[in-house]
Every structure is written in C-alpha cells, then in structure tokens.
Design a protein that fits this description.
heterodimer; A: mainly alpha; Arc Repressor Mutant, subunit A; flat; B: 137 residues; alpha/beta; 2,3-Dihydroxybiphenyl 1,2-Dioxygenase, domain 1; 3 helices; 42% strand
Chain lengths: 139, 137
C-alpha cells in the first residue's frame, strides 16, 4: 500500500515537472505549477526539491536557459530568444543567462557560430579518425 | 594507463528517430551533429551530467563499414532486443521512471529492488536495451 501511495505522489510531482517542460515559454509561476501536482505550494516546493535537487522556480529557469542555448546556437537573435522562452525583457534574460552560463547571450552565440562554422568547414575535426576511416569518409 | 572513456557507440536504425529519443525523451544533449557527405551523419549526444562522454548514435547502413548482409543481421538482432547497450544512473529512479513512461519510453522491467539499489530496464527506439539504476544511499 505504501508503495502505491509513493508512486501516486511521484506521478503528481512528475506531472508538474512535465508541465514546466511543456509550458516554460508561458507566463507560469509557482501557483500554476503547484496546481498541476494538486499540492499546497510549500509542500510542493519541498517535495519537488527533494526529487529534482532544485526548487520548481530554479528548474523553470534552467529549462528556459537550456532552450535559450539551443535558440542562440540556431542563430535566433537575443531579443527573439528572450521572448521565446518567457522572459519579460532581454535585459533580465541577459542578466540571468550570464549568471548561469558565465557568458552573455551574445558571447555564447558568437562561440556557437564559430563552432558551427568549424563543423561545416571541416567536420573531420570533430570525428575520431578511426570512425572516419572505417566509414570510408576519409581515405 | 587508460584514464577515461571519451566516445562510445550505440548502433541505431534511424538517426532522426534516435535523435528524438535520446534528446527529447531521455534529455541528453547534442554534442556534435555534423553532415559527413553522401547522406552520412556524425551524431553524438552526452548524458546531461556527463558532458565529456560522447555517445555516438551510429547508423547501421550499407557502406564501407557494413556490407548488405551485416546490415541485415545487425538490424534483425537490434530489433529483437539482443543488445544491452549501457547502464545509466539517476538520482531518483521512481521519478525518472514515471517521467520516461509519460514520454512514451517502453520499459521491459519496472523499478525493482536489487541488492545494490533499484533497477529498471527500458529499450530505445531501435531495440537496444538499457539498465536504469539508482544506487543504495
């Protein structure tokens, strides 16, 4: 019985985590997220942190920054990226991004562009030679 | 003295589908996704907290590495679920199990207590199977 109760509790917390994964770009807050798990706010924050090692808010920020990295790498502008991941302003986005990634979004994008260009120019620099030779990609 | 694994390889039947499985379902990060010409693609992903280990999602396709017969044999064996490809670990198996199940990942074995902790088994989109474990605290 105890195992079933535990599984039910896990399902509710996981539902909230997946809600963040799916709705990170929207104007969601801890109340919306806790509602998904049908818990009181403080009980929910404690349980979420015990499972994922982060508060729901910090997890939401992490998801947004991870998505931002993908968009910036795909050459989406800093302004468009900040709007696409649910930030109110590019200034607050840049501040949070820099705090977590230790680069500004523009610096990150510049580095990603250089890496993408290097991959396109000479992909063999990124493939161990044994694989490239075995596949017949280089003679 | 060998110090680390930098690359390892999982043979897959479709790289687009494998990308979706490993990145969108398992949450792995793309390390390198490079076109190698003539439709070939070098695709590597890393586990979220192990960015230095590149897992190559290697396509089983006829070419310099595999002939037609080998492709046919490998494809049949992978689809049949012959190969156990890796042991993954996580901090909370029950939560990870519930999340992956919600994303459509197929489990061969639900979380089960073992002497070393908890373990579940799941398969990827090709048919490779994996252990997902949580060590005893």
């Amino acid at each position: 019985m105890e195992q079933y109760e535990k599984l039910y509790l896990y399902k509710r917390i996981v539902r909230a985590k997946l809600f963040i994964d799916d709705h990170y770009a929207e104007n969601i807050d801890i109340d919306n997220i806790a509602d998904q798990a049908s818990f009181s706010k403080y009980h929910f924050i404690r349980l979420f942190k015990s499972i994922y090692g982060k508060t729901p808010h910090n997890y939401l920020i992490k998801v947004r920054i991870d998505k931002a990295k993908l968009l910036l790498s795909a050459d989406v502008s800093v302004l468009e990226t900040s709007m696409a991941i649910g930030f109110d302003s590019p200034t607050s986005f840049t501040a949070v991004f820099k705090k977590l990634v230790r680069k500004t979004p523009s610096e990150f994008q510049k580095d990603a562009k250089m890496r993408n260009a290097a991959i396109n120019q000479n992909p063999f620099l990124f493939v161990p030679n044994c694989y490239a030779e075995t596949n017949g990609w280089i003679k | 003295m060998i110090t680390k694994i930098t690359h390892t390889c999982i043979y897959v039947l479709n790289q687009d589908s494998a990308y979706d499985f490993y990145v969108n379902k398992l949450g792995f990060k793309v390390h390198t996704d490079a076109p190698m010409g003539e439709g070939a693609r070098w695709l590597t992903v890393t586990p979220p907290e192990q960015p230095e280990l590149e897992i190559t999602l290697f396509l089983i396709a006829e070419g310099a590495m595999f002939n037609k017969e080998t492709v046919s044999t490998m494809t049949a064996l992978i689809k049949k679920g012959t190969f156990g490809a890796a042991v993954f670990t996580c901090k909370d198996l029950l939560a990870t199990y519930e999340e992956l199940k919600a994303k459509g990942v197929v489990f061969k074995k639900p979380p089960t207590k073992e002497f070393y902790g908890m373990e579940a088994l799941f398969t990827d989109d090709s048919g490779n199977w994996f252990s997902l474990s949580q060590a005893n605290s």
